[in-house]
Amino acid sequence: MTDTPPGSPPVTVGDLALEVRSKNAGPFWVTMELFMRDADGYRVVADETFIDEHVVARLYRVDAGTVRMFRIPSLNVVKISFPRPVSQGSLRDRDMHAGQHHVPLAALPVPAGAPSTAGAGRG
């Protein structure tokens, strides 16, 4: 169970991670990486019942069939890639380097009772 007191904000993916980042993977793809602090945090984000292609598709309004996920337990990393909604540098591109795409994923609340939420630090 979580040790989060009632009324406090939920523990998020970003709280469990060393770093959550996004970047271009060429002009047509975005890649996000979840670098988790430890194996417990990795197990939380690698769990397909928590984060899968459909969750990413909902967060980023993309087709779930285009989302690619790579779980790398030896590094405690989950990598997620999907096509950019518009190509890099095009007239409608609002984030040229895809540097802000990670925010919705980092803000995703972790399910209550997840193994790594008790020790999650904020700050």
Q: What's the β-strand tally? A: 4
* Helical content band: 10-25%
Query: Which structural category fits the helices and strands?
Result: alpha+beta
Strand content: 15-25%
Distance between the termini: 21 Å
Low-confidence stretches at least 5 residues in length (pLDDT < 50)? none
Average predicted confidence as pLDDT: 85
Radius of gyration: 15 Å
Basic shape:
globular
- What letter string, H or E per element, gives the SSE order? HEEHHEEH
Largest sheet: spatial strand order: 1-2-4-3
Number of helices: 4
Q: Biggest sheet: strands, sense, closure? A: 4 strands, antiparallel
List key phrases describing it:
4 strands, four-stranded antiparallel beta sheet, 123 residues, globular, 4 helices, alpha+beta
Structure report:
By secondary structure, the chain is of the alpha+beta class. It contains four helices and four strands. The chain has a four-stranded antiparallel β-sheet with strand order 1-2-4-3. The longest helix is centred in the middle third of the chain and has 8 residues, at 39-46. The protein is globular, with a radius of gyration of 15 Å. The protein starts with 12 loop residues before the first helix and ends in a 17-residue tail after the last helix. The mean pLDDT is 85.
